[in-house]
Amino acid sequence: MPKVYNWHIGREMDYPYEESRPEKQVAWVFDINKCIECQTCTVACKTTWTSGKGQESMFWNNVETKPYGGYPTGWDLSILPKLGEQVWNANNVYEGKTVFESAPQGEKVNGYLPTDEDYAHVNLGEDECTQVIEKGAFFQGIHNAWMFYLARICNHCTYPACLAACPRKAIYKRKEDGIVLVDQTRCRGYRECVKACPYKKVFFNMVTRTSEKCIACFPLIEKGEQPRCVQTCIGKIRLMGFLNPPEKIRRDNPLDFLIYYKKIALPLYPQFGLEPNVYYIPPVHVPREFLYQMFGPTVDEAIETYRNAHQDRELLGALLLFTSTQKIIDSFRVKGDYVYGYNEKGDEVVKVPFTEPLYIRPYYDNKEKVYRHTIT
Ligand code: SF4
Ligand code: SF4
Prior knowledge:
By secondary structure, the chain is α+β, with helices and mostly antiparallel strands. 18% of the residues lie in helices and 19% in strands. It is globular and about 80 Å long. The protein starts with a strand and ends in a 5-residue tail after the last strand. One iron/sulfur cluster binds next to helix 3.
């Protein structure tokens, strides 16, 4: 198998195809600390793309409660043990095996096929905490009982396992933006991709008998707009843009800045070996052992940077861009009390104040002779 370089695990690894990075890579940052699991993103995606026959249990975007939730049921608990011991050395190099390196003899990827039952309970474990919470308990800075919401879409991986496993070569990664798509005319529904994707983000359509997956809302991206799940996010946890290849990174690109410069956002289960392109700002209140397994060995640094963001105007500015505009932000700049976002042509697409102005309306409107507030 060819050797490719995976910067998430700090080393070369086996992959069935030669390394071939796109000119630029579509990427997302999700701030877990802000997600309220309103599922607006899920509904926006479902009503846009998967409301047809055979797509009933297909959720290209889902939001699950960790530690107990997961869709399909137990997706990560099922794949993690298959990798064996997952150790990182002192230089943050992964010394365990990826899903490619641990593949059984004769197979390209170490995977499993979920059962129909696994797709039957999309919100299993939703809002379940690790402990019962006392009546009247309130936040005191340390959580003994915890949970968090994990929003998930296809990661449009740099080394997609779905693509690697497809015997028909029906899955391809676009050179111009790194979006991973299934060619519906080539797919014969063997489900090798469903079995191979460790994130379980390819779904089988029982009516068309083909595999389908998140298309990153490419018709919007081609118009310079962010995908539906980003545009509609109530918690403003999402930012989509393009990540440059490591040799071309730019500090004024918000994605490059957050991921490469500030290292505040981390890949989900980097040990799988896919170099996924959805990056997460880890939740600050969750036991670190859990987070190391989920986001790798640099969680402490990411959380420290996040906690101190209020002292770093440039970082705070980048964080204020989340879900601030429908347009894709190519570059950003902090000037005075505002952060500005610009498109690829350099035109301003958004201007966000560091402090939202506050206007308080008088409770009695003299002109209309009416009370504007409820008086109790
Ligand atoms: S819309 Fe945003 S806040 Fe709501 S569940 Fe989705 S990611 Fe979380
Ligand atoms: S997350 Fe899964 S479906 Fe998406 S590109 Fe990666 S391997 Fe393929």
